[in-house]
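Practice problem 4.
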């Protein structure tokens, strides 16, 4: 997996993306979105992973503390088939820390917006968007409670949040693409199988 896109400059072209009428209702719909316990467990790990990616890019220890604690995030999958979702390779190498409530909330909000975009109502329109990540980032930033808070080091918290949102968006989209591809190849395999069985019946 390539992470190069995480390094987007904070002045990225997100503003250039126009949220078309098709998605005008997404934020209203997202407000009614729910996150169950199972989702939340996954999202905590994603938040831990996001901190793992973003923290090394921050030079100020206070900024870092906004994202994660010193406590190690231990993972027990117990044969969960969704484990790949959490980049198990990274997790097995250890080093993930418990995310802060602040970062977890950011991840939850991006997730809620994303869930909306891939729900039946928007899925078709979303699949036609050229830059899905830009759209997801833009909508998520609008959905998040904006904080004008500035760290003592002079870094606006919104900049740190932006980096996190981009990283979360990458994770969600990568997994979604993987899921779609898996679905496609399963369908293909099923078709081949059907063909073969038709031939066999002749
Ligand atoms: Zn700082």
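Answer key:
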């Amino acid at each position: 997996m390539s992470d190069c896109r995480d390094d987007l400059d904070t002045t990225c072209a997100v503003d250039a993306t126009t949220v078309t009428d098709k998605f005008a209702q997404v934020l209203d719909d997202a407000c009614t979105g729910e996150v169950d316990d199972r989702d939340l467990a996954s999202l905590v790990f994603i938040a831990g992973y996001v901190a793992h990616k973003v923290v090394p890019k921050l030079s100020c220890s206070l900024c870092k503390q906004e994202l994660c604690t010193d406590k190690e995030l231990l993972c027990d999958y117990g044969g969960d088939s969704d484990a790949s979702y959490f980049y198990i390779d990274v997790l097995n190498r250890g080093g993930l820390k418990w995310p802060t409530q602040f970062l977890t909330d950011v991840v939850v909000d991006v997730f809620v917006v994303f869930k909306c975009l891939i729900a039946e109502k928007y899925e078709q329109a979303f699949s036609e968007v050229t830059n899905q990540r830009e759209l997801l980032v833009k909508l998520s930033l609008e959905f998040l409670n904006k904080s004008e808070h500035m760290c003592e080091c002079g870094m606006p918290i919104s900049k740190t949040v932006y980096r996190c949102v981009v990283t979360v968006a990458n994770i969600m989209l990568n997994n979604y693409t993987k899921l779609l591809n898996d679905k496609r190849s399963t369908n293909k395999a099923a078709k081949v199988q059907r063909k073969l069985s038709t031939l066999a019946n002749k």
